[in-house]
Design a protein that fits this description.
Among the domains are: 8-60; 61-91. The chain is built from three helices and no strands. The protein has helices spanning 3-58, 63-87, 93-118. 86% of the residues lie in helices and 0% in strands. The longest helix is centred in the first third of the chain and has 56 residues, at 3-58. With 124 residues, it is mostly helical. The radius of gyration is 35 Å and the shape is elongated. Residues 103-113 have a biased composition (Low complexity). Keywords: Coiled coil. Residues 114-124 have a biased composition (Acidic residues). Residues 10-44 form a coiled coil.
């Protein structure tokens, strides 16, 4: 007589399996649509590249040279950006202490320079 609980559990499992199967089919459809979109974009990109190369040939533009120059500029930009990110990272305690002592030294040397000017005897 303990089959009532088991039947209910099996029905829940079957219902969950149906939900998973429906979700799987939905994801499969989405992936197929995404593949079609990627293929369409690839075709358009190839068409645009052919048109640009034809226009470049008419204008005596070396496409390979332009692409190389662009790649170099992008690499330089990335290098500068990554160096900038390194510079904006928070300084550790050692770096802060060194910066503070440098700041104090600069202030002290400025003050002593002002004192030296006053002691020159010019009265200015």
């Amino acid at each position: 007589m303990g089959f009532g609980g088991t039947t209910e559990k099996l029905q829940k499992v079957a219902s969950m399996a149906e939900d998973v199967y429906a979700k799987l089919n939905e994801l499969r459809d989405q992936i197929q649509a995404m593949r079609e979109t990627v293929e369409r974009v690839d075709r358009r990109t190839a068409e645009n590249r052919a048109l640009l190369e034809a226009l470049a040939a008419e204008q005596d533009v070396d496409v390979d040279a332009v692409l190389t120059e662009t790649a170099i500029e992008e690499a330089e930009t990335e290098a500068v950006a990554s160096a900038g990110e390194d510079a904006t990272e928070p300084a550790d305690e050692t770096t802060r202490s060194a910066e503070e002592s440098t700041s104090d030294t600069t202030t002290d040397s400025t003050a002593s320079t002002a004192d030296d000017d006053d002691s020159s005897g010019t009265g200015n």
